Amino acid sequence: MEEFHKVRRLPPYVFEQVNRLKASARSRGADIIDLGMGNPDLPTPKSIVDKLCEVVRDPRTHRYSSSRGIPGLRRAQASYYARRFGVKLDPETQIVATLGSKEGFANMAQAITAPGDVILCPNPTYPIHAFGFIMSGGVIRSLQAEPDAGFIPALERGVRHSIPKPLALILNYPSNPTAHVASLDFYKDVVAYAKKNDIIILSDLAYSEIYFDGNPPPSVLQVPGAIDNTVEFTSMSKTFSMPGWRMGFAVGNERLIAALTRVKSYLDYGAFTPIQVAATAALNGDGADIAEVRDIYHKRRDVMVDSFGRAGWTIPAPAASMFAWAPIPEPFRHLGSLEFSKLLIEHADVAVAPGVGFGEHGDDFVRIALVENEHRIRQAARNIKRFFWSSAKQPNNVVPLAAHR
Ligand SMILES: Cc1ncc(COP(=O)(O)O)c(C=O)c1O
């Protein structure tokens, strides 16, 4: 049977192939160390879970909730932006709660996109950044992911050569998968260009609090006047280890927030009230839980960079996010990221995410998620070292005989 129009535009998840291989290795009894999925493994802090349990006992909270978020939750998000970024937001008109930032992003795409609208999107990037718009009838023009001196010229080329003129530009720093972080000066240049060219900015700041070495990433909304054309998405999934709770936010330009709020009012009744109340308590907390989560990822990062380095795999230390963007070691690079990821499962019992799953420009890399404990990360490095050694000793190097690109 012919696939449906929208389904045809959603290619099978590349990660699915790795997941299948992982499952079959596990069914054979292999102890796979899973650094593939970006699924935080840490438990949600006890105070947040306790708040949920307390509130859920009140039957009044069992009714439909508020789609845009209960007022206290939106006020708590406004306080967070004021505290953390010095950005003042009106909780009534400039903030909407979302069912995770992914839902917010996808429904923003739905709210603003007309068929054929062009969206400037980093490549590689987190898949919803492109596919949220593709599902909404938009067309993607890829941009480099690095927030360096080449970005504005690439942006200018993208705008000059797009018909119609692009509707929106996606930013995601700290980036998933590349872990790049943008500076406030970078944002200033991008905002100035986007405003001059009447382009909407959608910034995904899901990793606002997962940063290392004392360098908190800025918000694009810190740029004076950015709110005229910008919406930013944040998430409680990583900051508070609440991925399954589905709680995030969109904040910024009133017209864009109103459009998203309207679409959501047709689609959902908001998160379960006890979740919204517990999320409010989390945001109003003293920050100790956030610091603890950050510290755990920081230690894991250091262990990963050190132990993988000693295994012969030099990986740049990410400055933020819960990922390392690891160049495929030279002898394996020609295989591409999917085949290399398969080899790591089969020969090292380690799962990583193939870079090509985030876009064609990711194919020389794999993404390593810091979602196993330090002991398991060291074990992964030992397994990989053994695999590198054994493949180097093969007379004709069996590795390249695996399916070529
Ligand atoms: C860049 C980025 N944005 C959004 C999300 C989704 O976050 P949420 O759980 O809030 O939907 C993720 C999750 O991995 C992410 O990496």
From TrEMBL:
PROSITE patterns hit by this protein: AA_TRANSFER_CLASS_1
UniProt-listed Gene3D superfamilies: Aspartate Aminotransferase, domain 1 (3.90.1150.10), Type I PLP-dependent aspartate aminotransferase-like (Major domain) (3.40.640.10)
Source domain of life: Bacteria
Record has Transcription as a keyword: no
A matching Pfam family: Aminotran_1_2
Domain Aminotransferase class I/classII large: 31-383
Cofactor(s) recorded in Swiss-Prot or TrEMBL: pyridoxal 5'-phosphate
Keyword Zinc: no
Record keywords, A-Z: Aminotransferase, Transferase
Gene Ontology molecular functions: pyridoxal phosphate binding; transaminase activity
E.C. number: 2.6.1.-
Family according to the record: Belongs to the class-I pyridoxal-phosphate-dependent aminotransferase family.
Descriptive protein name: Aminotransferase
Organism, scientific name: Allomesorhizobium camelthorni
